[in-house]
Amino acid sequence: MKKGLVVLLFLIKVATAQITTNIISNSAIGDTITTYLTIDNCIAVGEFDLQIQWHADSLEFVQLQNYHDNLIGGTSTITDTLNYFSYNWIDIFNGSTGGLNINSGDTLFEMVFVADYNPSQASLNIILNNFYNLFSS
Fold this sequence. Notes:
By secondary structure, the protein is mainly beta. Helices cover about 0% and strands about 60% of the residues. The chain has a five-stranded antiparallel sheet, with no helix packed on it. Strands 4, 6, 7, 8 and 10 form a five-stranded antiparallel sheet that branches.
């Protein structure tokens, strides 16, 4: 039986991008869990900040993988701790290519965890989700 948790997020400063993540796991302790951060309404974004938190007693962060191809046009700063992850992305072309544009429903990147305890109760909390539009007044 699969158990899932969906965390939907809010919108953010100027741009209308929205991040969603979904953990579906019938995993056992020690199994690898991959969660996909999908995005909607990512149009002409010049910069974004994401902060994601989880329970360290349930999940152990391993890595990010499978970044969306359009993230290549920017520079990023990644900070991770025992139960906290921060990702900042800035358009290196300063809008000359129209900023970050990603189709709704596409995966921004994947986060990989190892289940440490009761993975069916694992959750992610997106505590900061700021997207800044290039062309706002």
